[in-house]
Amino acid sequence: MTALEFTSSIVNTLAWPIIVTIIILILKKPLTQLLLSISKFKYNNLEMDFGKELIKIEKTLDKQITEETSQNNAASTIIKRKKMKYYLSPRFIQVQQSL
Predict the structure, then answer these.
(1) Alpha-carbon torsion 38, 40, 43, 48, what sign?
(2) pLDDT tens-digit profile of 44-98?
(3) Would you call 45 helix, strand, or coil by DSSP?
(4) Looking at the predicted structure, is the pLDDT value of residue 99 above 60?
(5) For 72, phi and psi rounded to 5 degrees?
(6) 40 φψ region: left (φ > 0), alpha (ψ -120 to 50), beta (else)
(7) Using CA atoms, how far apart are residues 56 and 97, in angstroms rounded to an integer?
(8) pTM exceeds 0.70
(9) Backbone phi, then psi, for 47, in 5-degree steps?
């Protein structure tokens, strides 16, 4: 195998991963919005439903946070809310279910 053939085979091997990476970087924001809007996921025997339970939990959180706001200062409540929404995000739930 000559150096030219070796270089050609490396370029052919690495071409598609580089193109896919570039496409993902270009479409990062739209893909993120799409993934966050998914409420149900099904693949073979694996099925995840984020929508209904997430809405119930968010309503409960909003109610609790409203009550806490009247008791505590607003800054600590905002921090708590951001932490709770992170733990209830579809990505975090999906990772926890896979563990």
Answers:
(1) positive
(2) 888 877 766 667 777 787 887 777 666 656 566 666 666 666 656 666 555 555 5
(3) coil
(4) no
(5) -110, 175
(6) beta
(7) 19
(8) no
(9) -140, 130
